[in-house]
Design a protein that fits this description.
By secondary structure, this protein is of the alpha/beta class. The protein is built from 13 helices and 7 strands. Strands 3-2-1-4-5-7-6 form a 7-stranded mixed beta sheet, with helices on both faces. It is globular. The termini are far apart. About 40% of the residues are buried.
Length: about 300
Amino acid sequence: MTTGINDLWKAGPGGPSRIAEGITLQRMAESMLPEDVRIFYDPYAVHFVDPAKLAWARDHPAETQAMVEVIERKMPGWSNTIRARVRFFDDVVGNAAAEGFSQLVIPGAGYDTRAYRIESLKGHLRVFEIDRPETLARKTGILKTIFETLPDHVAFVPHEIGKEPWWQSLEVAGFIPAGKTLFLLEGLVMYLPRPAVEDLLAGIAGHAGVGSAVLFDFVPQSLADGSSDAEGGQEIRESTIRMGEPILSGFAPGEVVPFLAGLGFGNVQVISSPAYTKMYYTGKNAGRKVSGLLSFAYAKVPGGNRT
């Protein structure tokens, strides 16, 4: 029987995250654009995409292009929104050393490659990548293939976020609670039930040192609960269900700031789609469609506004 692309993307029991691989595919695709067009460059992304999927795309170029067009039609601007998220989070991490951060913690790290490609981070920040054991096992195996040995500035913490507390595991891995830490929650909050979101963020507020900060992205509540199909929201939601990692949480308009304040965060900034579109999609990129269904939030943990 001939294997089709849909078979390759079917969710199986356990195993590495399909969502993580899909986001990596977006990073790879952006990195393949001309240098004067792409908004970031990730030379390692291609290593984390299933070779069978790459081979299928290589052998079926017309079908691959047709699939890309169908996805864009069903979820207009979503791909460019995901790529803008990568760039915005890159920029925050790239400035972290200059802003005095000494640690970077990435819960649900997936195939994040910032620890290996952002030069200003190396030698300045200790990085802690947290994810399911299956995902980390695949990732560390690939990293050994790329670098021969695992980078010594990164600690890998096997733990499924949202299932049980992870602070003890983090400290065992060398995390210093008093250190000024940047917590990067990229593509994570929306996949957790609301109580787990609150526990995660409250844990950060209660465990991090003075001056620490959290950065995460979020979707509207109407996308999470399926009450709206604006900008292809239903298709986005259903695609995550098909990959075995459904969107579970969102926020109502205007809810994020008081929600974070209630957990003890301060200096909350919300970066919406129009704002990051102006940052990254100008000049030759001015015509790229961007979805309005994803926003970013950056906040200081208690005491952060006194640094």
